[in-house]
Design brief:
The structure is a homodimer of 251-residue chains. The first copy, chain A, is α/β, with parallel strands linked by helices and 251 residues long. The first copy, chain A, has one domain: Survival protein SurE-like phosphatase/nucleotidase (Stationary-phase Survival Protein Sure Homolog, Chain: A). Chain A is 25% helix and 29% strand. In chain A, helix 1 packs across helix 4 and helix 2 runs parallel beside helix 3. The model of chain A has no long low-confidence stretch (mean pLDDT 94). The interface between A and B is large, with 74 and 74 residues.
């Protein structure tokens, strides 16, 4: 079993080392991660320039490859053969913030798992609500449990998993829920200021998002102290009812 | 009616000017587009640096704002208030290649419309199969027809439209179909070479994608000479059957 570990926070992020350490209990681990932070960078395919790889070390000294591309580029390179060894499973994270609701199309952590799904390999994105009080232990343990089941059962074509851990020590987690995406209110604000030369600049800022609870959602699961596992599908086609409504529009 | 026009090929791209020209028959148009090409850049939210806007001109001389951020940043800035005027509709394109099947999470053209959907405005992404023989006329006319209906009927929450035009003159198009996402085979190849200094670099290359026909898909519609309108939904949660299967895994 050969497991590729990547993330969107860059190869020196502590969450990456925590994930690699946890996954090494399940098989051989290769870490190939971006050389810089790619948070909220979306699903990237770098086509118009070459990519570079360098031998580096994770924050815990573990050997790793750093890549000049995005998280999804790291996955593409590994699955296209730069490792000279087949990859059986892709696990991305641990992101030090939850990836809930509408976060998923932005999230570098999740888009790495999307790339795995598009290339026909099981992909798991792992995020944790916050790390200040409980670190990465709860999320790492959840990642191992999910990866074990995925290795055993497989995932349907086009499906990836987004795992989120609540802010609780491992022994206080209430269980695991299979969820659907909930909603967050981003509360973004447009900050307009002048630079030192009197020219305006614009900064997308504001407070962090507020989760809006909904039954059966990832948001609700975390609030209630559960690990959330959200199966995502790459087919973003709207439900049939929407298509039927559009067909009625007299084209 | 105030329509925001953006794209992922940059403010000088001819497809952007063609779209702005077509849309100006429906209302007031503002062009706010990236200052460079962002193809296959995914859904970006630029949070860790400021964004700049400059007064520039499109390829046809039309005034425009160029932005240092991604297509989705352009939409966010406009909908958050940099234009000092409410935006009623966001139209992105015209992309000089089709955005079909699995392209949508990568596509800057489509992610601009996603950003509109997340911010509560109707968003339409417009792409054309190729431009060498028929230019942008067929796609531009399709965009106007779709935008008219969307302005009249609205779109359900979380829904955006991806419109693709076939390689046909307008008078040879066979009609319009509401479709679901099909599949493409990307045929990507990993190119490994040494740079002038003997160090390896990696380039994701290969031939263009091959569309795999499927009934009711965007791919099939284009092959059969129809305009394809694919309603997409931001909720990537997998179908209930997948969630039910995962729940049976004995957590």
């Amino acid at each position: 079993m050969h497991i590729l570990i990547t993330n969107d926070d860059g190869v020196r992020a502590p969450g990456l080392a925590a994930l690699a350490e946890a996954m090494s209990t399940l098989g051989d681990v290769t870490v190939l991660a971006p050389d810089r932070n790619w948070s909220a960078s979306g699903h990237v395919k770098t086509m118009h320039k070459p990519l570079r790889l360098h031998q580096v070390a994770c924050s815990d000294g573990r050997p790793a490859l750093s890549c000049s591309g995005a998280p999804s580029d790291c996955v593409a390179l590994a699955l296209m053969g730069v490792l000279d060894r087949e990859v059986d499973l892709v696990v991305s994270g641990i992101n030090p913030h939850a990836n809930l609701g509408q976060d998923v199309t932005y999230s570098g952590t999740v888009t790495a798992a999307m790339e795995a799904a598009l290339l026909g390999k099981p992909g798991i994105a792992v995020s944790t609500e916050q790390t200040e009080t409980v670190g990465y232990a709860t999320a790492a343990q959840a990642a191992v449990a999910v990866a074990k089941k995925v290795m055993n059962k497989g995932l349907p074509e086009g499906v990836l998993l987004s795992v989120n851990a609540p802010t609780l020590p491992t022994d206080q987690v209430r269980g695991t829920r299979i969820t659907r995406l909930g909603r967050r209110d981003y509360r973004d604000q447009l900050i307009v200021r002048d630079d030192p030369y009197g020219r305006p600049y614009y900064w997308i800022g504001g407070e962090g998002p507020v989760a809006l609870p909904g039954e059966g959602t990832d948001v609700e699961a975390l609030e209630e102290g559960f690990i959330s596992i959200t199966p995502l599908h790459m087919d973003m086609s709207a439900p049939r009812s929407v298509a039927a409504e559009l067909r009625s529009w007299d084209w």
